[in-house]
């Protein structure tokens, strides 16, 4: 390469000449830097070694030649490009100045737009902050209201729990009251108050036996109490049905009950304290009056309520009751204790059937009483 920086032309000597010149040049040892005389060294080599060395140097020479040629071509292209770029520097400066002004104008316009957008964004930010503060205030108010409502809800929940317990208790009481009502509706008041039953040939009312079986095991105090129950039952049934006898009125008074004639006011007792040896005509008259009053009551039920054949045992006042073609007297005079006891039993069974019919027709009885003005 010369002083101008360009590559010097490659020598066109023959390879043999170049190799000889190379052999005559001196080299230094890489370890001790002592100059080496290759000419003297190569003299001692044989012909084949020298030829191999020459071939190696020829190959290196060709490679160096090709490398220098490529470098020279690249330098020429660089010089041409540089000359083209620096052909008109004034025009390049004007073009760069115009581009810079246009870019500056664009940047200023963009800056103005960004400033306007920044101002708008600042205003929006202020509005958003104001809305956020308002929402925070609403949140605080709603939180306080929520706590208040939560307390109110808890209180109402407690009251609801107490009311549920009270409602359950009330429903239980209602169920019990309904069951009792059904039981009472299906229960005959007269049947419960004046329970009529019989054991063997002896009938009883309210637990008091009526009659004098063989052996005389029933005293007169029990008989008198039983007749008092019969008198009270007749009065209750008559009042319930709206019946009033035209001949007698019953006066219940426990073991001192009696029948009374309406015409004369005479009292006919339904009690006695005498034994079989002493006849008591007043007591017989009272029992006959009672049987006549029951017969009149059954006729009233047949006419008013259309209930015929209510009594299973026909009554034949003033003193007889029929059963299977036989008649039994209700008086003691001239009568046996067994037949008198049977007559009392048949009379009580007729009254029991009347009592049972009244318990099964309460609405009919109420309607008839309202129609007749006896409610």
UniProtKB/TrEMBL annotation:
One example GO MF annotation: phosphatidylinositol 3-kinase binding
Biased composition (Acidic residues): 89-99
UniProt-listed GO biological process terms: autophagosome assembly; cellular response to nitrogen starvation; late endosome to vacuole transport; mitophagy
Domain Atg6 BARA residues, every copy: 184-359
GO CC terms, sorted: phagophore assembly site; phosphatidylinositol 3-kinase complex, class III, type I; phosphatidylinositol 3-kinase complex, class III, type II
Superkingdom, natural source: Eukaryota
Region Disordered: start-end pairs: 72-99
Family of the protein in this entry: Belongs to the beclin family.
Protein name as it appears in the record: APG6 domain-containing protein
Biological source species: Macrostomum lignano
């Amino acid at each position: 390469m010369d002083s101008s920086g360009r590559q010097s032309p490659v020598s066109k000597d023959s390879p043999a000449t170049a190799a000889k010149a190379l052999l005559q040049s001196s080299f230094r040892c890489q370890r001790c830097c002592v100059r080496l005389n290759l000419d003297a060294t190569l003299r001692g080599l044989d012909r084949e070694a020298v030829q191999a060395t020459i071939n190696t140097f020829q190959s290196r020479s060709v490679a160096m030649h090709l490398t220098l040629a490529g470098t020279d071509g690249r330098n020429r292209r660089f010089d041409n490009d540089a000359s083209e770029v620096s052909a008109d520097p004034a025009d390049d400066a004007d073009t760069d100045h115009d581009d810079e002004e246009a870019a500056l104008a664009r940047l200023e316009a963009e800056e103005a737009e960004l400033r306007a957008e920044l101002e708008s964004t600042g205003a929006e930010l202020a509005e958003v902050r104001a809305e956020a503060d308002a929402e925070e205030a609403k949140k605080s108010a709603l939180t306080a209201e929520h706590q208040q409502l939560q307390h109110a809800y808890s209180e109402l929940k407690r009251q609801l729990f107490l009311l549920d317990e009270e409602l359950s208790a009330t429903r239980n009481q209602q169920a019990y009251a309904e069951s009792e009502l059904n039981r009472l509706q299906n229960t005959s008041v007269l049947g419960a108050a004046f329970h009529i039953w019989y054991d063997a040939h002896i009938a009883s009312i309210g637990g008091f036996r009526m009659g004098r079986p063989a052996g005389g095991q029933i005293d007169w105090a029990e008989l008198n109490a039983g007749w008092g129950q019969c008198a009270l039952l007749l009065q209750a049934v008559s009042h319930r049905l709206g019946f009033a006898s035209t001949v007698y009125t019953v006066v219940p008074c426990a073991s001192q009950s009696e029948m009374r004639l309406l015409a004369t006011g005479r009292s006919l007792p339904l009690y006695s304290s005498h034994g079989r040896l002493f006849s008591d005509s007043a007591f017989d008259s009272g029992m006959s009056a009672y049987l006549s009053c029951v017969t009149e009551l059954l006729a009233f039920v047949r006419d008013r309520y259309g209930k015929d054949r209510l009594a299973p045992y026909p009554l034949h006042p003033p003193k007889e009751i029929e059963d299977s073609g036989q008649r039994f007297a209700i008086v003691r005079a001239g009568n046996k204790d067994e037949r008198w006891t049977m007559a009392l039993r048949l009379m009580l069974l007729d009254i029991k059937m009347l009592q049972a019919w009244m318990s099964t027709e309460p609405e009919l009885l109420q309607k008839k009483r309202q129609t007749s003005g006896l409610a």
